[in-house]
Amino acid sequence: MAYWLFKSEPDVFGWDDLVAKGDQGEEWDGVRNYQARNNMREMKKGDLGLFYHSNQGKEAVGICEVSAEAHPDSTTDDPRWECVDVKAVKPLPRPVSLEQAKVEPRLKDMALVNNTRLSVQPVTDAEWAVVMELAGL
Description:
alpha+beta, EVE_domain, PUA-like_sf, EVE domain-containing protein, THYN1-like_EVE
């Protein structure tokens, strides 16, 4: 299993919106960055991700699961763009902020800390463990 981070603006599509989708989950559509798309192409069903509120909050708030592997993005006819489907697993007991990640030495190499613009990012096993610790899991 691999770990990922999915960024979304909470006023556009937030954690509560994903929770409301239930087991059906939601397409992680609209991504128009090649690196983010390529990350989604690497995902396998069952991989876990951090659901991260960008712009407002700037914090990981929940754990989601990849429920469908890469497929054409339904929001475009351009075949270059693909997406995965994700569903909510559980909220983090304590959200983990970008500021916390930046001051945690064990997360100094995390993509979130070094490339805050990338909307879909890999998370290493070690980084996942640290974020879970900070979140109280």
